[in-house]
Amino acid sequence: MEQVYILDTTLRDGAQGENISFTPEDKVKIAKKLDKLGIHYIEGGWPGSNPGADKFFELAKDIEFKNSKLTAFCSTRRPNIKADKDELLIALIKSGAPAITIFGKTWDLHVEDVMENTLEENLAMINDTVSFFKSNNREVLYDGEHFFDGYKNNREYALKTLAAALEGGAGFLVLCDTNGGTLPNEIEDIVLDVKQHLTEKYKDNDELLPVKIGIHAHNDCAMAVANTIAAVNKGAVMVQGTINGYGERCGNADLTSCIPVLCLKMNNWCIPEENLTYLHKVSRFISEIANMIPLNSRPFVGKSAFAHKGGIHVSAVMKIPKAYEHIEPEEVGNYRRILVSDQAGKSNIEYKAKEFGIDLNANGMDSKKIVAEIKRLENMGFQYDVADASFRILMEKMTKKFDPCFDFKSFRIAYEKDGNNACHSFATVKIEVNDIEEITAAEGHGPVNALDNALRKALKKFYKDELEAIHLVDYKVRILDGRDGTAAKVRVLIEFRDEDHIWTTVGFSEDIIEASWQALTDSFQYKLSK
């Protein structure tokens, strides 16, 4: 199998995802991480289309990429003008990007009915644009937009568009499933036909062979990764996608799945072998920059990707991990998690104790007693299978190993509503660290936010650097039994993260403020103790 090249379009196609927006400075940070990962091409955006894209390429001129080639993106020239007179194309030359991705129309429906163009002029636009960039010493990657739909509607014309790009000097012909509606068996048949057709057509032209096919898949049928792998199976040598699958509508092919599948399942090391363990960190970093909650169930890099809950599963994993895991989590920089709940057995507890470095027998506390206590607490309303951080603190307390980073003394909340004005919350918190008492007050958007702000303010005197890395990801409140109305018992789950880790804590009470405080203080105790 030929070497597969990776083009990451997180900064361009990924940024088109709903609720995702990157500043030029954000893009620079992400580009550096992708370069470190070993990505071959980083598609940075469309210079000339907006000031943000222009600024990114200007900033990128000062970056020395070690593994990656920065790539600018643009459409073909406009109809009925010369390529060297098209300001959009000239802007790409000015960007300084050494590689260019050009997208052109391959579906006759788009050419004639959407663009109101002629089929002949569209072919000329493709060829002229690619030739223009080749004459300016740029590497050109041609994206055949809507290729699979175009092929199914008019095979002959779709193939002509690829020939126009190839004859113009394109190094890669990337077949795009722009609408995301093609199935893997169709992808395989079409990729194979394209490669065979072009190879036969140019069999006597060594300058155009071998034809390098790429794949750009969207996820509208949840097939983007499968379609990408199907294309590689039939000879595609370039994979385009985004980190975490970010992108318009349902997203793009997720490179955090494509890359480990290629490397570990197909033995096609598309990035340096030693870099694969960096994949988990890159996924987390980009989700933080994008301000998107990481998907726990995301394969390979998700929090739950190697999580085990059932006692029988855990017992087997402790003996032979591959009994319930298809790869070692460390290969992609992830880690195994054993969950605890009222379904847990001794194996779960013993594994967690070993993970936390806790000697269960040191203080007369064995796994049976902890299992019994877990079941009692979960019957009340706690939930530890999703709150590892709280469970660690609980185990430390039960085995008398808990060494608090701060001692809670008291808190007080004031909540004020004045006429039609917005509500105001005020909180005062008293804590003690190493016999030093600290009392602080803070405002917030609601009582829990006021408590969070006051606690952070109090702790900052002792743990300033550590606190700056802690960011709230999610806050959930669950009513356990609504029959008691507003006096119902509630469970609160709070999720925090830093650059490398995510942790969750749980609180339970009839009082939502009390439950929130339990989860909040556990979160800070857990992070500061680490």
Topology, pairings included?
Blueprint: E1 5-8, H1 24-37, E2 41-45, H2 51-60, E3 69-75, H3 87-95, E4 99-105, H4 108-114, H5 119-135, E5 139-145, H6 147-153, H7 155-168, E6 172-177, H8 184-201, E7 213-217, H9 224-233, E8 238-241, H10 255-265, H11 279-289, E9 307-308, H12 311-319, E10 337-338, H13 346-356, H14 367-380, H15 388-398, E11 407-416, E12 424-433, E13 436-444, H16 447-468, E14 471-479, E15 490-497, E16 502-509, H17 512-529
Helix pairs in contact: 1-2, 1-11, 5-7, 6-7, 8-9, 12-13, 13-14, 15-17, 16-17
Molecular structure report:
This protein is α/β, with parallel strands linked by helices. Among the domains are: 71-267, TIM Barrel, CATH 3.20.20.70; 307-398, no CATH class; 404-465, Double Stranded RNA Binding Domain, CATH 3.30.160.740. Helix content is 40%, strand content 19%. It contains 17 helices and 16 strands. The protein has helices spanning 24-37, 51-60, 87-95, 108-114, 119-135, 147-153, 155-168, 184-201, 224-233, 255-265, 279-289, 311-319, 346-356, 367-380, 388-398, 447-468, 512-529, and strands spanning 5-8, 41-45, 69-75, 99-105, 139-145, 172-177, 213-217, 238-241, 307-308, 337-338, 407-416, 424-433, 436-444, 471-479, 490-497, 502-509. The strands form four sheets. The chain has an eight-stranded parallel barrel with strand order 1-2-3-4-5-6-7-8, surrounded by nine helices. A three-stranded antiparallel sheet has the order 11-12-13, with helices on one face. α6 crosses α7 (155-168) and α13 (346-356) packs across α14 (367-380). The radius of gyration is 28 Å and the shape is elongated. The mean pLDDT is 90.
